[in-house]
């Protein structure tokens, strides 16, 4: 056995055990508890289960939404009962072993860079478009992160002023505590919010996608333009070889073509844009990326 990865979500958590060829040889899914002591205990128990599948020597990586403040060790997360708690340290204590804890979007970026759509490329960026917006940057097969551990929180960059003003959009409060974050416009709830603002209708993202050739055409076009502006900023920052898209909104048919066209419109002059591709790993990516980060930490 090579490594253990745990994909820790707000409702479900899944452990995956990987062999030397990075194939999943065992997996276990359990409900995510809603209170902190049970959460720590159950994650530690899940690690224990994974260890029984192939030995206690395998490194363990956990990928979860949210941030860990490197100065305090405390978590900030909207979908787990762990905010203001020393979550990684408490898991390690409960499990009686070292763990590697990474943001789930960064874990997906690493997984796609090493095993998926970014394989063979040097600079790989990932953008997750779902209930929230986040991502990561992998360079030479490793997550690029600095002293704040906030790199990749693309959803909390500011929305483009020219589009907000042109369409007379409100400045919405973000769950991070700031206002005007791009996430409030282009995450799944943001897309529905745009439709309500522009048409007065309460519609879901799948309904908007289905009707984007009709009465939701302007809503969809604006969403593409807003998302493309973020892709433009990402391109100007790192000039990646490829940008991998993941998350629930990327299940919309034709999204790659629509966003590629919008990204080209947002680019400077007639310069090109990085290829946009859909994440390959699916529900394996988060756990596999976390497991690989743990393997790297042990072998570097």
TrEMBL record:
Highest taxon, organism lineage: Bacteria
PROSITE patterns: ROK
Name of this protein: ROK family protein
Listed Gene3D superfamilies: 3.30.420.40
Family statement drawn from the similarity comment of this UniProt entry: Belongs to the ROK (NagC/XylR) family.
Entry-linked InterPro entries: ATPase_NBD, ROK, ROK_cs
């Amino acid at each position: 056995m090579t490594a253990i990865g745990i994909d820790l979500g707000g409702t479900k958590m899944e452990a995956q055990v990987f062999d030397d060829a990075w194939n999943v040889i065992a997996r276990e899914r359990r409900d995510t508890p809603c209170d902190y002591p049970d959460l720590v205990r159950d994650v530690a128990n899940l690690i224990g289960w994974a260890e029984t599948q192939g030995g206690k020597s395998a490194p363990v990586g956990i990928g979860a939404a949210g941030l860990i403040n490197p100065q305090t060790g405390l978590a900030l997360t909207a979908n787990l009962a762990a905010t203001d708690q020393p979550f990684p340290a408490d898991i390690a204590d409960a499990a009686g072993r070292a763990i590697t804890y990474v943001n789930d979007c960064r874990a997906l970026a690493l997984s796609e860079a090493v095993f998926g759509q970014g394989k063979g490329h040097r600079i790989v960026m990932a953008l997750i478009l779902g209930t929230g917006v986040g991502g990561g940057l992998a360079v030479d097969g490793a997550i690029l992160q600095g002293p704040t551990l906030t790199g990749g929180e693309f959803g909390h960059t500011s929305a483009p002023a020219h589009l907000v003003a042109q369409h007379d959009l409100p400045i919405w409060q973000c769950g991070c505590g700031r206002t005007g974050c791009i996430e409030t416009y282009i995450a799944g709830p943001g897309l529905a919010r745009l439709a309500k603002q522009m048409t007065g209708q309460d519609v879901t993202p799948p309904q908007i996608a289905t009707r984007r050739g009709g009465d939701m055409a302007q809503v969809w076009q604006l969403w593409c333009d807003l998302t493309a502006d973020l892709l433009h900023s990402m391109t100007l920052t790192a000039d990646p070889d490829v940008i991998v898209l993941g998350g629930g909104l990327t299940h919309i048919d034709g999204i790659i073509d629509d966003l590629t066209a919008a990204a080209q419109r947002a680019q400077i002059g007639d310069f090109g844009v990085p290829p946009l591709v859909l994440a390959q790993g699916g529900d394996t990516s988060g756990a596999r990326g976390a497991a690989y980060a743990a393997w790297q930490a042990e072998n570097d």
